[in-house]
Design brief:
147 residues; Heat Shock Protein 90; single chain; alpha+beta; 28% strand
Length: 147
């Protein structure tokens, strides 16, 4: 059964490293309508940054491609963020989710999925080699008591 969302935004951009900060800002601005704490905003921004950076660095290592950022708000105060590419995909998702594993060379830490998992409530990764990767993250934003 599909969940019914109350708001949605979809942005598509080229896999240029300069677009990583754009995606971070867009996610923070979209989430602002949920009245998150500063810590929650930072968690969202960091997680989006990691997911988008993975798409830029790993999906399209030798060319530019498109990255899609979809954000949804659900009635139970859950923010869902999806980052999708149509790049080279991940050979072994379980291995890629292990801390310190990277295919990006010595300059990469291999902590992207670990960071996303620790800052968001839920993380799912689907990938098909040669067709791309979809990362879906969810975070519940606790409603704050108005004074």
């Amino acid at each position: 059964m599909k969940r019914k969302f109350i708001n949605e935004a979809v942005i598509e951009f080229l896999s240029c490293s300069s677009n990583e900060s754009f995606a971070r800002s867009a996610a923070a601005c979209f989430a602002a309508q949920m009245d998150p704490t500063l810590n929650e905003v930072e968690d969202i921004k960091t997680s989006v940054s990691e997911a988008v950076t993975n798409a830029i660095v790993h999906a399209y290592p030798e060319s530019l491609g498109k990255v899609s950022l979809r954000m949804r708000i659900y009635p139970d105060s859950v923010l869902e963020v999806m980052v999708k590419d149509r790049g080279r995909g991940i050979q072994d998702v379980q291995q890629a989710r292990q801390p310190m594993f990277t295919t990006g060379g010595e300059e990469r830490s291999g902590m992207g999925f670990t960071i996303m998992e620790s800052f968001m409530d839920r993380l799912s990764v689907r990938s098909t080699p040669g067709k791309g990767t979809t990362v879906v993250m969810r975070k519940r934003i606790a409603p704050r008591v108005k004074k």
